[in-house]
Design a protein that fits this description.
globular; alpha+beta; 22% strand; 2 helices; three-stranded antiparallel β-sheet; disordered N terminus
Length: 117
């Protein structure tokens, strides 16, 4: 899948929660974290209430907004893709901005799915 003509997500394993790779990431950012680390962060975020335990009401994708990822805390720069998980409606709307890999790890932990590691 091409995104903004620049990024492609290799998502053969998103549904099985194995791995999602975003091409063209900086070596030091959240895109390089291994799956087990992201899954651990997701479990902690769910347990401490930082991220919801249910599916979002809607999810949108696009260029990063410059805010911190709700899971890993790394900035979502405009030259990388982000997913925005939306809960509720205006005026009680809550938005969570996440890297695609962070979103996938959170989704796997929310749904209690396992991955072969």
């Amino acid at each position: 899948m091409q995104i903004a003509g620049e990024y492609s997500i290799l998502s053969s394993a998103v549904s099985s929660c194995v791995n999602v790779t975003l091409c063209r990431g900086d070596p030091g950012d959240a895109l390089q974290m291994d799956v087990s680390t992201l899954r651990e962060k997701a479990r902690e975020a769910i347990q401490n209430g930082k991220l919801p335990t249910r599916s979002p009401d809607s999810t949108m994708g696009g260029p990063g907004c410059g805010e911190a990822c709700a899971l890993c805390g790394e900035t979502l720069p405009r030259n990388q893709m982000e997913l925005e998980a939306v809960f509720g409606e205006i005026p009680e709307m809550h938005k969570y901005h996440l890297h695609p890999r962070c979103f996938a790890a959170w989704e796997c932990e929310r749904e209690g799915r396992t991955s072969p590691e």
